[in-house]
Amino acid sequence: MDRVRLNVPLLRKRVPNLTAASRSVGLRPATVSNLCTGKIPIERAEVRTLIALATLAECSLDDLILKGYGGEMIETGIKVVDFFAPLVSGGINGFVARPGMGQLVLLAEIFKRLTDKEYKTVFLLSPNADPGVSDVIEVASTVCNNVEEVYNHILKIGKNHEVALAADRSLVLNGELYTLHNQLEKKGIQPITTFLVDPRGDAVDEEEPYGPLESLWQFDADLASRRMYPAVNPIQSTSVIIENSQLEPIHNLLLQRARKLLRRYRELRFLVNAVGFEKLPSLDKQVYLRGERIEAYLTQPFFVAESFTNKPGQYVNLHDTIRDIQQIIDGALDEIEVKEFSYIGKLHL
Predict the structure, then answer these.
(1) Between 19 and which of 29, 34, 165, 267 could a Cys-Cys bridge form, CB atoms 3.0 to 4.6 Å apart?
(2) How far is 262 from 260, CA to CA, in rounded Å?
(3) What is the number of other CB atoms lying within 10 angstroms of the CB of residue 23?
(4) pTM of the full predicted structure?
């Protein structure tokens, strides 16, 4: 039986400020966002919700509801991204982080890896840009100063190359991003893979910081404080590829097991800090140590940071990441010290 989903590109095209528009007709923005990302299956949506969305988009229900799922995963070779919140080709992907957590370094690394896959990377430099954007500027194929420059540049190259665009979230808030996508679509340009960053950290405190996204990478203050980079929260980060069950069965099974283990591990960290590791029951000790190993394994040397870390960047294909995480969860690596998992590529078993 075919699965169904909302025609999100159509919604974005017809209703640029979807969050505000949804609220104006009595819909909860969080509900609309969850329907767009697949967190709420469309089969569970109320009829009145779908009718309201169709009315906003001035389309029929047949146009609003599509069979099957589009948007393929782009493998980045970054373990925490590929396993827990895959990057979606042609989608809008957002970072949510406080300043200093490394979101711009992760963006620069993704740009570097996409360039190696022959993408053309475009960075829209916002006024009063954060100093950290220099990391991205160094690796971007092109830096533009306004949306018109972006449009003209992508128009020249977009039919011959895959394009990745990164910009400040203000581009969403003022509606320019959706206008840009719409203009490019009219010129026959395929959907461009878009990244939205928030160097000031305003998005952290908002329920719907970007509106509907294909992938969201939530950064974690605890990981950043312990210098475990990339400090992407593996539990809170997600992707429409996961929500829409597009993963291979073994990946999906291990993802659920890993998140369950990591949730319990994070609970146990509070107990360990309060009463000590030795006070834990034996089964909790096992969970705690395996959680430590997964957490350490998800750190990774980046190519863009080689001059600072003196460690060569590591690309880890998804197959190896799945295999390694399965070994950790199943206890096959319980005898290996936790420190041996930190800042490596794949495990050499």
Answers:
(1) 29
(2) 6
(3) 14
(4) 0.82
- Measured CA to CA, the distance from residue 229 to residue 220 in angstroms comes to 10
CATH of the domain at 153: 3.40.50.300
What are the tens digits of pLDDT across the range 15-60? 877 878 888 888 888 888 778 766 677 778 888 898 999 898 888 8
| Cβ count within 10 A of residue 245 | 12
Strands 215-218 and 238-239: antiparallel
HSE at residue 98, side-chain half, CA atoms within 13 A, is 9
For 153-193, what is each residue's pLDDT tens digit?
Answer: 999 997 888 999 999 888 877 778 878 888 898 888 888 99
Q: Give me the sign of the Cα torsion angle 276, 282, 288, 290.
A: positive
Q: What's the domain range around 291?
A: 249-341
- Cα separation, 258 vs 328, whole angstroms: 9
Would strands 142-144 and 92-96 be described as parallel, antiparallel, or unpaired? unpaired
Omega before 230 cis (within 30°)? Answer: yes
- Distance between CA atoms of residues 237 and 231, nearest Å: 11
Residues 205 and 175 in one domain: yes
Residue 116 DSSP SS3: helix
Residues linked to residue 164 through DSSP beta bridges, in sequence order: 121, 193
